[in-house]
Write a structure and sequence with these properties.
By secondary structure, the protein is mainly alpha-helical. Helix content is about 90%, strand content about 0%. The chain contains 2 helices and no strands. It has helices at about 1-25, 30-34.
Length: about 35
């Protein structure tokens, strides 16, 4: 279960990185999200 938790944590971090990368690419999205 500890490994499972780590994998979920990594998945969340990767999603966050993708989100921030998308925000940096299209600044317009920042206004719609905030």
């Amino acid at each position: 279960t500890l490994m499972n938790l780590k994998l979920k944590e990594m998945d969340g971090i990767i999603k966050m990185l993708h989100m921030s990368a998308n925000l940096q690419e299209n600044p317009v999205n920042k206004h719609t999200l905030l």
